[in-house]
Specification:
The protein has about 260 residues and is an alpha/beta fold. The protein contains 8 helices and 8 strands; from the N terminus they run E-H-E-H-E-H-E-H-H-E-H-E-H-E-H-E.
């Protein structure tokens, strides 16, 4: 199981995030993920850095650690802008990028407060939010292929192509992840987690498919013999994203196992 790290720009400034990313790289973490929020309030902080701006800075500040988003709200940008941004981070870093995407919150959710404050459109229809995820998958597949249409020939062509991981909070998105994406991300403590995993697995069939889990950072989880880690392994989790929301995580000096 690969261990990834995520920290919050709501409570950390750029220099702190950079130093934590470098420490995570030195400690042997597989990936470093960023949030996609417009403001810090929803994460309990006083500020925020736009995710692809932050990723561009991380791409040139680090050397080997893989970068990712966990997860991008597909309504925060036009679909073409999102696909081009992911390809640009890949070009800047020269390594694997993991594009985690989510369908976005409903207008009545507290997660949508920042969109309302920014006078951004918030889609009320669940089916339309899911369709937006499909549109990202469609355009990425069309734009990132080597034999793409001539009209797309001057868009950035990422190599390797970013992996697309769908953050699933419904069986519909779980099935879509299994059918079309490179992987699924699930909040480990979510009540319907196993149902979503089963739906994704059934849709994926025999094809290669990455199962990622999301959990609040706990240094004890660096131990593969921890009961939660053993449970994750039993459910064939490939990557574990450990997220620290309140400050700088207590990182090990040696690579996690």
């Amino acid at each position: 199981m690969i261990l990834d790290l995520q920290v919050s720009p709501a409570v950390l400034d750029w220099s702190e995030i950079r130093d934590i990313a470098l420490a995570a790289e030195s400690a042997g973490f597989g990936g470093f993920h960023v949030f996609d929020h417009l403001a810090g309030l929803s994460l309990g902080g006083s500020s925020m850095l736009e995710c692809f701006s932050l990723l561009g800075a991380l791409a040139v500040s680090t050397e080997t650690i893989e970068l990712g988003t966990m997860v991008v709200n597909v309504w925060n940008r036009q679909v073409g802008t999102l696909v081009t941004a992911a390809a640009s981070v890949t070009a800047l870093s020269g390594r694997q990028f993991h594009l985690g995407i989510g369908a976005g919150a409903s207008p009545t959710s507290t997660w949508a407060d920042e969109q309302h404050a920014a006078r951004a459109y918030v889609e009320p229809c669940v089916a339309a939010r899911h369709e937006r995820v499909r549109q990202v998958l469609d355009l990425a597949a069309e734009t990132w292929r080597s034999d793409r249409d001539e009209r797309l020939s001057t868009f950035p062509l990422p190599s390797p192509a970013p992996s697309i991981i769908i953050g699933a909070n419904s069986t519909t998105l779980a099935r879509l992840a299994g059918e079309r994406a490179d992987g699924i991300n699930l909040q480990w403590n979510r009540p319907r987690r196993d149902e979503y995993l089963a739906a994704a697995d059934q849709a994926a069939g025999d094809r290669h498919f990455v199962r990622t889990a999301y959990h609040v950072y706990d240094r004890a989880l660096l131990d593969p013999e921890h009961p939660t880690r053993r449970e994750m392994a039993a459910r064939r989790i490939d990557r574990l994203v450990l997220a620290e929301f309140t400050g700088s995580p207590d990182l090990p000096s040696r690579p996690p196992r």
